[in-house]
Specification:
By secondary structure, the protein is of the alpha+beta class. The strands form 4 sheets. A 6-stranded antiparallel β-sheet has the order 10-15-14-13-11-12. Strands 5-6-4-9 form a 4-stranded antiparallel β-sheet, with helices on one face. A hairpin with a 2-residue loop joins strand 5 and strand 6. Helices cover 24% and strands 32% of the residues.
């Protein structure tokens, strides 16, 4: 199919899913609400629908303007999309920070151990004795009933208005780089200031993600717009490929999350 040529092979199953949603809405005229999608998936939805689509529209919401993971509504162009259509709920719990230290991965692990699928959860924050979790409305009763402890600390989740959500605007700092290739190990080396050997080791140990998915191939070729994350070293993205130098090196602009 011609549409596939604009995307990577590993993205094809999600593309098929989006095309199925699109066809469903076009036939039924009933809006489609998705689970939480990561930013790359949100981008794919918008690309497949197109900004000038005559019949359909798509909107995203994850709790606040700074939310990363969002649910999307695909609807006929004449439909008015309202915030309540996304069915995003905020759950809040407190924990004794003097006695237990909780991180994002601790909260996530507790949820997954209860059988809650990641796609039903939005952004998660755990800091200063408070956990804020954005969740799909349909799983909120299950979470409140079943998730009562994290790392042996008793907790109780309660629904709160979205206006009380803890938000933090993310700041990115851009750097211009000149690199020999767009191989994953080369880019990780340049952005994170590690040796080529250490970059390869991080990839092979499954500590590197590209567009929110683990990639274990050091030769994986990156593209403009790709998001990277290296466990323990933070996130970055390739914001621009600016051509080549006279010595045939690649001119790249990368942004690192501060």
């Amino acid at each position: 199919m011609e549409v596939y040529q604009h995307f990577r092979k590993e993205e094809q199953p999600f593309i098929d899913q989006v095309l199925s949603w699109k066809d469903q809405v076009e036939r039924s005229y009933i809006p489609k609400l998705t689970d939480f999608l990561d930013p790359r998936e949100q981008e794919i939805v918008q690309m497949l629908l197109g900004t000038n689509h005559d019949e359909l529209q798509a909107a995203a919401f994850g709790g606040s303007e700074y939310s990363e993971r969002k649910r999307m509504v695909i609807a006929p162009i004449y439909e008015s999309i309202t915030e309540d259509m996304f069915q995003v709920e905020l759950l809040e719990a407190s924990y004794p920070e003097k006695f237990v230290s909780l991180e994002h991965r601790d909260v996530m692990g507790a949820f997954l151990s209860q059988g809650v699928k990641r796609k039903k959860l939005g952004d998660i924050t755990a800091a200063d004795g408070k956990i804020h979790l954005l969740a799909a409305g349909e799983v909120v009763p299950f979470i409140k009933m079943n998730l009562t402890s994290i790392k042996k600390s008793r907790i109780s989740f309660k629904e709160q208005p979205l206006t009380s959500l803890i938000t933090e605007k993310k700041a990115w700092k851009e750097y211009d780089k000149t690199i020999s290739s767009l191989r994953l190990d080369t880019v990780v080396k340049e952005i994170y200031g590690v040796s080529r050997k250490d970059a390869a080791a991080l990839i092979q140990k499954l500590l590197v993600k590209v567009n929110y998915r683990v990639v274990d191939d050091v030769k994986f070729l990156l593209q403009e717009g790709d998001m990277l994350s290296v466990r323990g070293k933070g996130r970055s993205k390739i914001t621009a490929i600016r051509g080549r130098t006279r010595k045939d090196k690649i001119k790249m602009t990368a942004a690192i999350l501060q």
